[in-house]
Amino acid sequence: xxMIDDRQLAHQLSNVLRLQPGDEIVLLDNSGEQYVVALxxxxxxxxxxxxxxxxxxxxxxxxxxxxxxxxxxxERFEWALQKCTELGAAAFVPLVCERSAAADMSERKAExxxxxxxxxxxxxxxxxxxxxxxxxxxxxxxxxxxxxxxxLLLWEGAGVxxxxxxxxxxxxxxxxxxxxxxxxxxxxxxEFKTASExxxxxxxxxxxxxxxxxxxxxxxxxxxxxxxxxxxxxxx
Length: 236
Hints:
Strand content: 25-35%
Shape: elongated
Number of helices: 7
Largest sheet: 8 strands, parallel
Oligomer: single chain
Helix content: 25-40%
Number of strands: 12
Order of helices and strands: EHEEEEHEHEEHEEHEHEH
């Protein structure tokens, strides 16, 4: 027996989706598993059902991408959170850069970000919710990314290698990748120097200059495609 005591979810099942007893839904437990559940009862604030089958969730990439997102205007930052969650990013770190817009880092804002990530994860049938870390300064982030198999800096300046080349040049398996992406106005020359001093590889996404919220989406897509994690992705 499965009990769903989330009032909002119960409302969505009964009043939005208009499901009936006997209908099947997929529940995710945030541990990488998914459960097909046959509904039995639907109420205003709860629902019950029975597990029909259990299997590993199919929406989790093998490559874990952590995005260090430069803080920008709220609606753009939240759009990047949403789309990168749908694509398969494993974690997010809000990044305070020289040109970052002033951001509301209150508990209420953190709850809103968590809700956006959760809804995007449900939409894309993710097996795990991406983690949102506390905001970090750019310098602190650069000093701590040595824990990843590969750390990349999205850079719109000339004279750097392509993202594809950086990925293919790595001869060992890439299980964890950190991507540092700047705010509106881009990263400064000093930040570029700091990243280089910590061994972070600057890469370009091509000759076109992308918006601050578009660049991490493009990078996440390219990385997971190159690593073979986009082959079975389906539209919803």
